[in-house]
Known about the structure:
Elements: H1 14-18, H2 20-28, H3 33-40, H4 44-89, H5 93-110, E1 139-141, E2 146-148
Antiparallel strand pairs: 1-2
Helix pairs in contact: 2-3, 2-4, 3-4, 4-5
Amino acid sequence: MARKGRQVTKGPDPKTKARWPEALDLRIAGGTYRQIAAQMGIDLKAAYEAVQGALGELDAITKVKAERHRDLELRRLERATLGLWSKVQAGDERAIMAWVRCADRKAKLLGLDAPTEISGPNGVPLTFTLTLDRPGGMRENPSKNALLPPRGHNADD
């Protein structure tokens, strides 16, 4: 329950969000977070968060566009399958093969196929570890004007 007089905000404030494009442009140009911070007059954490905020926004836009494109492709496949169906029922081999390709593509778009299993030497399953850090976990490397991942993590992650 919110206290009276306190406003609950969702997401970054407009001033913070307004610096995302500039921070991303500087990062794309090869700027380190320290350089971005100095150029924009903000601290390292704010520079990192601005770049990450811009990237997160781009990810969201890309996800929506991908979903729309997937929906469009599914509609096209449904029309193609519908158009082939009478020939498939009549036993037309070319139509059957085309229908199977449409069905295969549709299954891939919808994620209906079982995932492909990848194994290491002698069929031994491969093990992967994914570690995610928060921006506050970053540490500075003063000699290179850059941020490093927290201790114990590979710098190339």
